[in-house]
Every structure is written in structure tokens, then in C-alpha cells.
Amino acid sequence: MRTFEEMAYGPLGEAVNGLMPTSEADPIGVWAASLSLYSAAISRTVRLDNRRPVVIWTVLAGRSAIGRKGYALGSATELLRDAIGGFIYTRKRSGVANGPSLVDMLSKMESENTGPDGGHDGRCVLVEEEWASVLKDQKKCSKFSTYFRTAWDGKPVSNRTKKEGLQSVAQPLLGFHSHITPGEWAKYVSSSEALGGSYNRLLPVLVERSKLLPYNNKWVIPETSELKRAYEWAQEEKRVMCFSKEAGERYDEIRAIVEDKMAELPELLASYMERTAEQVHRVAAVLSALDMTEEISIEAVNAAWAFVEYSTYSVEKLVKDAASDGGGAKPMKTPEELIDEVLDKHDGKVSSSIMLRALWGKLKAAEIKAVVEGMDTVELVREKGEGRGAPSQMYVRVEPPEPSRKFKVIKGEGQAPEPKPEPKRQPPQASNGNPFQGLI
């Protein structure tokens, strides 16, 4: 598995390394977020030699809290503040949940902003720190994945609405960065959309906390003037990024490695890697632009390959974990198990208010009572306090009742209880001349 040292390159690699002693984030997470933000910022003027955009779309996949996903994004934002802070704070968007909204955002961003040369400037970056909540809505829109893929490709997108009429963007300049947990990945990233190409435009990376620092720790930002100069260089004029001869040969080797690996993998896993070569091309171009040169070096290609290869490892693990055990998510507990857990923490006796507080968001008060009524080991009782107030309602653990025996124990093997003879029915007796009185 690749390490951060193998992918760190140029002034951005030095800046991330300089920040890490005072950041709890995963350095690969900071690196991924930085590449996503910076590539979106230079996307108007920097292109590949095949006219494809250089935007790098990244996803941080890590467990809540210990993944430090938000910490990584915060570290990257602080690191790039002097260089592209204006872009981040004015062009960052979130919560786009359907295709028409995506086109509307891109169209308005383009029409409302102009670049230094007076032309349209539609650069923006979608940052979804709770990507799973947006994915749920995006999956309901049949157009979103198509527009999303097209935007990464840098091809025209358009949509017609009654209010706005035809909205069209000839060359989308969309950056993207998001966060998700492995369990959410298993739930919301469907195999059908992966096979359709919706997710091979993304570079997911697994992240986790790098260290635990004191609560009053503060980031110490290293010198970043080189990043600012590189951004100014990228903005001065149109830049077309081309491989050097050595870099081009190395790129061809990587393409062959990727295609050989894809041939060995199941179709679902291979579908995530269909654009791995172009991802290497884009990352290498951005790293070379940070060196203020339009020639992509072999060193930049190798560093880019290290990052993209780590992403392919991350995808493979996420997909396999999702197939085997739901992405590592724990099975859902029953209401009875949840109630027992609360009683265990309080020595078998807890007030109804504390029980409700402990199960807030999982069970309502009426639901707790209904569940307890069906449990043999828990009872709801009223206890009179010392004061004049109303009795407290307490949930108390009790011993289960002894099971009742329906049959007597019969001594001897193979013997069964003899059935009792049915009582003989007595014929009805006539009374007062009515022969049916005994049957009434």
C-alpha cells in the first residue's frame, strides 16, 4: 500500500508536510482535499493538451470522529488560504441534490462572474461534508449522474425549465470534494451506478486520525508563498500541460499496468478504475503547474500514480467490505437489546426520563412502554418519593417467571400420559311437558 511520502511532491507536498506536526488529520486526507480545492481554482486557465479539464474530484472515506475527515478539509483550507482563499470562500457550494439544480448553479456561476480578461468565469467547487445525506436525494433524480459525469469530462451540459428557460454551460468548471463513512458507502453507492461510470470520476481515499494532540493545539501553518506564486502564474495566461518524453513513456507504462489489473478484477471493481490513467494525468498536471511549468515531469507522474494507486486500493477495500458485511457496519440492535443496555449501565434500575434520554432518536416514550410490556425481564413500576411530588416511573429488571407445566411428569421411559375418558352425556330430561327444556 502506498504511503504519503511517495505521493508528496513539490511546494504543496512540502506545505502539507510542514503542517502535519500540528494536525490530527491523515496526511493523505489533507493531500486529497488540497488537490481538489487547488485544481478547481486553476481550472479556468490550466488544461491538459487534449483539452480535458484538470479538476480532481476526491472523497474522504473514514469512520465518524476517528477518520478526521473534517479536520483534513479544515487543514487543507487553512493551508491554501493565502493562495486561493478568495476562490474557496466565494465559489464553494453544497447541497446540490438534483440534475437541474446542478446545471442552474453552473449557469448562474458562469453568467454572474467574469475573469481578469473580461470573459465568463464559472469556476466553483462542490464540498459535501455529509455526502450520504445528499446522495439519498441525488439517487432520486435520473438526470443528476449524467450531468455530474459530463461536468467532470468538461463537456457541455444544458437543461430547460419553465422559469429560467434554456440554461446551457459550454465548458463546466466544477470541482468536487466530499466525505463519507464506509458504512454509508455500502448503503448509498450502488453497483449499478458504478457500472454506469458515475463513480470512476472520483478518487476515494481511506483516512484515519494520524495522532492525538492536546485539546488546545493550534495549527502552525508553514510558509506558503510558493503556492501563492504558483496560483498567480497559473492565472496569468492559458496554460496547456504536456508530458515530457520520459513522463509520457512512464504514463504509457502505468496505462498498461492499470489495464492488466482491470482484466483480472471482477467487472464491478474494474468499473471504478476505468479512468485511472486520466486521473494520473490530471494529478500530474496539477503538480507540475504548482512547479510553474507546462511540462509534466516523470517525478510528477510517479507521485500522481502513488496517490491514484492508493485510491484504487481504497476503492477495492470499500467495495469488498460492502459486499461482505455492509461496509463494516454493525447489525441493528432490537428495541429489547437497547433497553437492556441502558439498564445494564444503571444497575438494573432507571427512571423513565433517563431511559428516554438514553434512547433519544431511537425509541419514543410510548414505544419504550410498549416494548417493556412484552418483556418478561423488565417492568415499569411507580415509586413514591420523599416529597409531595407525583410518584416516579421506574424501569426495573426482574426475574423471569417460572415456566408453567402443562403435563404431569410420567415415570418410566416411553410412557405417555393416558387420555382422560370423556364424560358420558346424559339424555335431556323432560319437565313440565317440554321435551326441549334440557337443551336450552
Q: Topology, please?
A:
Layout lengths: L3 H4 L2 H10 L7 H15 L4 E3 L8 E5 L7 H11 L1 H11 E2 L5 H14 L11 E5 L2 H8 L5 H10 L3 E5 L3 E5 L4 E7 L1 H7 L2 H5 L6 E5 L18 H12 L2 E5 L1 H20 L2 H5 L4 H15 L4 E2 L1 H28 L9 H11 L3 E3 H7 L6 H9 L4 E6 L8 E6 L43
Parallel strand pairs: 1-9, 2-7, 2-8, 3-4, 4-7, 9-10
Antiparallel strand pairs: 5-6, 11-13, 12-13
Helix pairs in contact: 2-3, 3-4, 4-5, 6-8, 9-15, 12-14, 12-15, 14-15
Determine the oligomeric state from the structure. Answer: single chain
Q: Share of helix among residues?
A: 40-55%
- Main sheet, how many strands, which sense, barrel? 5 strands, parallel
Principal-axis shape equals elongated
**Which structural class matches the secondary elements?**
alpha/beta
Describe the structure.
It is a single chain. The protein has 440 residues and is of the alpha/beta class. It is built from 18 helices and 13 strands. The strands form 4 sheets. A 5-stranded parallel sheet has the order 3-4-7-2-8. Strands 1-9-10 form a 3-stranded parallel sheet. A hairpin with a 3-residue loop joins strand 5 and strand 6. Helix 3 packs across helix 4.
Which terms summarize this structure?
single chain, 440 residues, alpha/beta, five-stranded parallel beta sheet, three-stranded parallel beta sheet, 13% strand, disordered C terminus
In short:
With 440 residues, the chain is an alpha/beta fold. The chain has 18 helices and 13 strands. α4 (69-79) packs across α5.
